[in-house]
Each structure stands twice: as structure tokens, then as C-alpha cells.
Design goal:
Layout (H helix, E strand, L loop, with lengths): L3 H23 L2 H7 L19 H18 L3 H18 L6 H14 L9 H6 L1 E5 L2 H21 L3 H5 L4 H6 L7 H4 L4 H23 L1 H21 L5 H8 L6 H22 L4 E5 L4 H20 L11 H4 L14 E11 L5 E3 L8 H7 L3 H17 L5 E11 L5 E2 L31
């Protein structure tokens, strides 16, 4: 198939990622999220990923430059591998900052490692003096599949009783948006609008991949994509995600659209490009050796099987998913719950019974404390950190107990953690956390 769609995707993705790094730096988040905290929450199995102190700035510089090189198609393979590793390392440094779209960026950058995204309209073409007109169809199809998985699974996740029949948590969030011009005071507090947003959000996610794949509905589907993400950007602080998804969905369009986009870009850079591009040979097809093709095919097949199965791992656990969050992450459950909690820790001498309570602000930032207060793996990890900390100060026979209360999607606050369980003796694992108290309500759905 024509190489233009993948080239446009590479340029858009690289520029969006570069802008994201600049935005992160300008807001001072490198300092506040990674350097200032005394303690960082880790993903299970990735405890070895450490914050690099002031060298964290260097990591962001490397990531940003790699993103820019990806956009330009300069030393593309090295650039995309560097971007994938540096961005994913940043993501793994502190679990507190986890967002679905960070995970999405890591997955897309991993896929791009195996795609010939520099085959056309890249600086690598200028250096090698070779450009390819066509690429294998699977190269763009793999990106379409990844985007479709994100949308469709996000839609499936919305098929639950809280979202559809209680309009939660949108009812909580939209009511607070009264300050938005024009619509804030007129419809944001209306119950019918909350339900309309909930149902339309579910229908949008479930249908948009198919509407984009079908040529007759594609242009209208893209208009809906732009409107949907622009509107959610106005309503919610979700960073660069709307722009990433809008640019990403261009991959569904035919080559003619991308050819026009490249024509515009080419006009803008023509004074520079004309110096280099006089002797570029244009070759009909980009081809891989049979061995490379076989290896890449196997890697991508395994990758997509994992992506299709990962969101269903929650079925291996009992109790309510939104309450325990066992299997919640990495499953495209986007903005499905409003959860708030208060968790206090009691340090006890197991022999004497003497105890004292911890002031969480002595160890955590306000953002970390907020995230810790209602997520069980955070609570367990922090309990171990406290136990180790006070043990290093000479305390003996340490036991760590949590007194926790959590409210979910507008419900009354309930006790969350069994306050009689010594969390310092519990080790993190993939097993069910039976020290989470049973949810007193029922949320029906997928």
C-alpha cells in the first residue's frame, strides 16, 4: 500500500510526543512529580526502576530529542527505540502518574519499532538517497488495530450499571463545571445531560472504530472524533490525549488524504528540502527479508494477543473491580470512577502494644497521598515503606495497620482495609487481596 499514511502518522506522533515533553517540563512536573518526593510508588515487578535525581532532566531531554528525531525520520530505528525505552522508563518511575494514554504511547512506540515508518518522507531518505513508494499493508493495519482496541475496550468498560443507569461518575464531574461559558449554567447540572453524555460516550467508543474503517462513514466519524475529543478537553484536564487520538485516527484515511497533507508539509520545507532531495531514487516497494518478516510477525501477533487478553484478567479475581482495582489498570477503563479516600496508618510495637499514628505529609506529596488513599496496592507498598523506615530508626517488633475509608461514585464512605491485618507481613503478589473489605453494593456489567 502507499507509504504516505505511515509517514504522516510518524510525523504527527513524533511532534505530539515532543510537545508533551516540553509541556511536562514547562509545568514543572519533572521537579514536583519525580525529584521532590521522598518516596516513589512502583509497579509490581518494576521496583528496580529508580528516579535519577537531577539526571531525570537529562532523561526527559533524551526522550524529547528522540521524539523529534522520530518526527523527522532521522536515524529512525535508533530514535524510536530510544523514545520507547526512555518514555516507558519515565512512566515506570512512579506509579502515581499512571494514565491510560501514557500506556497507550508506550504501546504505540513499541509497535513503531517494527514498522518502516521512515520508508518515505524522512531525513533517512535524504541520507540514503532512497525513498519507497509502498510499504506492507500490515504496517498501517497494526496501528489501526491498536487504536480500535483502545476505543472498543473503553466502550465495553462503560457497559456497567453505574455508567449507564446512574450516570456516574459523570454526574459528579459535570455538575462541578458550572463555570464553563454558555453551557455551564444551562445544561451541566441537568440530569438528562449527564445520562446523554454517559450513553453517547459508550456508543461512541463502541462504534467509532467501525465507522472509521468504513469509507462511506469515515469523514463523518472523524468529525465526531474531533468534536468528542475537543469537548472532553474542555471539560476535563486530560492533557495531550485528545490531540494524540485526533492525529492518530488520521491513519484510517486513504493515501490520497495523506498525500495532500505531505504536499502541504513539503511546501513549507521546500527551501531546505530542495538542497538535499535532487538525487533521491524512488523505489516501488519496501521489502523485508523472510527471516525479518517472520520474526516481526510473531512478535506482533503475541503483542496483540496480550492486548486482547489483558483487559479480561480482572475475571480471575472475586469482588467488585472498581472497589479492589485488581486488574483495573492496563485495560482501557477510561474515567469510569470517582474514588476518594482517607487512609491513616498506625505503627504498633507487637510486644508492648504501644503505638503511634503517621502523618502522611511527612513522607508523601499531596498528590501521592490522594492516590494512595484509595488504591490497595499503593496502601500496601506504603505500609512496607513505613515499616522499613521506622525499623531503620531503631523501632522493634513493628506492625503496620491501616484505617481506611473510601467513597466510590457518589456512594457513602465505607471502611476499605481490614484494620486488624498487619500489612507489614503481607507481600505484594498477583493473588487476591483478601484484606480489602467486601464492597457493600453491586455494580453490574463488564
Amino acid at each position: 500500500m502507499p507509504a504516505e499514511p505511515l509517514a504522516v502518522f510518524r510525523i504527527g506522533f513524533g511532534l505530539m510526543m515532543f510537545a508533551s515533553i516540553i509541556r511536562f517540563w514547562c509545568y514543572g512536573w519533572i521537579e514536583t512529580l519525580y525529584i521532590q518526593p521522598k518516596f516513589h510508588f512502583k509497579f509490581y515487578g518494576f521496583e528496580w526502576v529508580k528516579v535519577l535525581g537531577d539526571y531525570t532532566y537529562l532523561l526527559f531531554i533524551i526522550c524529547g530529542l528522540a521524539a523529534l528525531m522520530v518526527a523527522f525520520g532521522l536515524k529512525y530505528r535508533l530514535a524510536i527505540v530510544t523514545f520507547f525505552l526512555s518514555f516507558t522508563y519515565i512512566e515506570l518511575m512512579d506509579k502515581t502518574t499512571y494514565l491510560n494514554h501514557y500506556y497507550f504511547v508506550s504501546l504505540v512506540s513499541f509497535i513503531l519499532i517494527f514498522l518502516p515508518a521512515n520508508a518515505y518522507f524522512s531525513i533517512d531518505n535524504l541520507i540514503r538517497k532512497v525513498s519507497y513508494k509502498t510499504i506492507p499493508k500490515w504496517a498501517t493495519d497494526s496501528l489501526k488495530l491498536m487504536l480500535s482496541i483502545v476505543y472498543f475496550y473503553a466502550g465495553l468498560a462503560k457497559l456497567n450499571s453505574d455508567w449507564l443507569f446512574k450516570a456516574q461518575p459523570l454526574k459528579i464531574w459535570l455538575t462541578s463545571k458550572y463555570d464553563i461559558p454558555i453551557i455551564g449554567e444551562t445544561i451541566m447540572h441537568k440530569e438528562w445531560f449527564h445520562y446523554a453524555m454517559s450513553w453517547s460516550g459508550a456508543i461512541y467508543d463502541l462504534t467509532i472504530p467501525f465507522l472509521l474503517l468504513y469509507k462511506r462513514t469515515r469523514i463523518w466519524a472523524f468529525a465526531i472524533v474531533v468534536f468528542f475529543h475537543a469537548f472532553t478537553k474542555i471539560l476535563f484536564p486530560i492533557g495531550m490525549f485528545p490531540f494524540i487520538m485526533i492525529i492518530g485516527t488520521l491513519i484510517f484515511f486513504d493515501a490520497a488524504v495523506h498525500q495532500r497533507l505531505i504536499f502541504v508539509i513539503n511546501k513549507l520545507i521546500q527551501p531546505i528540502r530542495s538542497i538535499w532531495s535532487r538525487n533521491i531514487r524512488s523505489i516501488e516497494g519496501y521489502k523485508l527479508s523472510k527471516i525479518k518478516q517472520s520474526v516481526i510477525t510473531k512478535i506482533l501477533v503475541v503483542f496483540f494477543i496480550l492486548q486482547l487478553l489483558m483487559p479480561w484478567r480482572y475475571l480471575a479475581y472475586p469482588d467488585e473491580l472498581f472497589w479492589t482495582e485488581e486488574g483495573y489498570r492496563f485495560s482501557w477503563r477510561v474515567m469510569l470512577m470517582e474514588k476518594a479516600g482517607y487512609t491513616n496508618f498506625k505503627i504498633v510495637d507487637g510486644k508492648t502494644g504501644r503505638y503511634f499514628y503517621v502523618d502522611n505529609s511527612d513522607f508523601l506529596t499531596s498528590f501521592q497521598e490522594k492516590q494512595m488513599s484509595f488504591q490497595p496496592d499503593f496502601i500496601l507498598e506504603y505500609a512496607h515503606y513505613l515499616g522499613d523506615h521506622f525499623k531503620s530508626q531503631g523501632h522493634k517488633n513493628i506492625q503496620v495497620f491501616a484505617e481506611s475509608f473510601v467513597a466510590l461514585n457518589g456512594r457513602m464512605s465505607e471502611p476499605y482495609i481490614d484494620s486488624k491485618v498487619d500489612l507489614y507481613q503481607i507481600q505484594e503478589s498477583f493473588q487476591h487481596k483478601d484484606w480489602i473489605l467486601v464492597f457493600k453494593d453491586k455494580i453490574k456489567g463488564l
